Amino acid sequence: MAGVATIAQTGIHQVVPFASDVLAGTRENESTGISAPPNETTQEEQDAVLYDQFPASYIIENDLHAPLKVPDLSLIEDELNPKRLHKITSLLWLAGRPVPPRPLHYQQLLGREVVVSERIDIHLVWGQGRIFVKPIPRYLLNPRFWRDHLVCRCTPSERNTPEGVPVCVCGRQRLHQCALGLLLQYAALIVHESDFTIALDKHLIPYDVSWPRWRRFVRELLHGNGSESGRTLYADVAERFIYGELRLNRLNLIEMVLRGPLSRGFVAVWDSYGSFYRDNSAVIIGGTAYILLILSAMQVGLGTSRLADNDAFQSVSYGFTVFSILGPLAAIAVLFIVFSIAIFYNLARTRQFEKNRSKKLGRTWRIEKRNTASGQGGAGTGQGSGMEMDSVGKAPVVV
C-alpha cells in the first residue's frame, strides 16, 4: 500500500503507517474515499499546520515553555513514551494481559467511567470504577510528522554490528514504536460507531475526524504490513503497548514493592489526609470486628465441659485474648505514627520546595512583620489598598 514501507535491516516501519488524510486535509468523497488533489501549499504553510497540532505549552522543571517551532523530540517523548511502565516491563503480566484493549462501549458496560488523561503512563489503566484514556494527539494523524520526526536517520552501520546483529533502538525508532502502539490501541478502542461517538463525546479524537475516515484509517493501519490483521505489527511496537488494560491497584502494589511504602504510586490513592485516615481506620475497625467474632466463639467454647478442661484451648484463648487487647491498640498507634510522619514530611517537603522555587524565581512573596506603630496612620500606609511591597521590593503582593 502506498505510503507504507519497511526497512529490512530492522523490521521497523519507518514511514507513515496509513495513507489517507484523516484530518480532512484533502477534498474527498467520504463514501468512496477517493481524494482530490490537495491544494498546493508551501513548506512554511505545512510547517505551520503541523506546529499548530502540538500543545500550546509545556511545563519543564515547573516552568512554562511555549516552543516557537515543532517541539524537540525529548518533549514529544514525554508525551508518547511511558517510561515508568517500560522500567517494569517484566512485571506487567501481573497487572494485565498481552491482548488489545476492549472497545469503549464495553468499558462503559463494565461500569467504568472513561476519564481523559494526557499522561501516557496511565493510559488504559483502570481502577475504582474509572479507566484513564489519553486522547490521540492530533499530530499523530498528520503524515508529515511521521516522515519528518519518526524516521530513523541512522546509517546501516549504526543500526547493526558488523556481524549483522541489531544494536539498541535509536530515539526516533523508539518514538515510532510508541506512536504505532498507541494507534493500534485506538484501533481496538474504537471498533463500532457507538465507540466512535463515545470517543468524540469524550474528546479522545479530533472533532474533524468522521466515521468513514476512521474506518478507512483503521483498514490502512492494519493492512499496511501486507496482512489482513495487525498481529504482525506487534513486532514493531513498544513493550507496554503489547498489553491492553492494566489494573491500577496492582501497578501501585508493584510501585510500593520496588520503591517502598511511602511511594506515591502511579495514581495517588488518597487525595487528602482525611481519606488516608478513613481508609486505614476502616481496615482496623474491620479487623477488630473479626477479632470480636473469634472471641465470642472462644467464649462459647469455654462454656462447654470438653473445651473448658482442654489445656491447649485454654492457652490459645489466653494468648488470643491478650492479642485482642494489644493488637488494635498497636494498629492505632502505628496509624497515628504514620499519619504524623506523613503530615510533617509533606510540610517539610512543601516548605523546602517553596524556598527552592523562591530562589529560582529570584523573589519572595512572604510578607514580613512590620512595625505596628508605623503601620498606623490611614491610607498613606497602604492599609486600604490591600497591597504591599514584598521583602525585596520587586512587586506588590496581596495581603
Automatic annotation (TrEMBL):
Task: Indicate yes or no for the key word Transmembrane helix.
Answer: yes
Q: Give the Gly residues compositional bias ranges.
A: 375-385
Tell me the domain of life.
Answer: Eukaryota
Keywords annotated in UniProt:
Membrane, Transmembrane, Transmembrane helix
> Which InterPro entries does this entry report, sorted A to Z?
DUF6601 (IPR046536)
List residues traversing the bilayer: 282-302, 322-348
Write out the ranges of the annotated region (Disordered): 372-399
Q: Which Pfam families match?
A: DUF6601
Coiled-coil annotated spans: none
Is Transmembrane included in the keywords of this UniProt record? yes
Protein name as it appears in the record? Uncharacterized protein
Provide the taxonomic classification. Answer: Eukaryota, Fungi, Dikarya, Ascomycota, Pezizomycotina
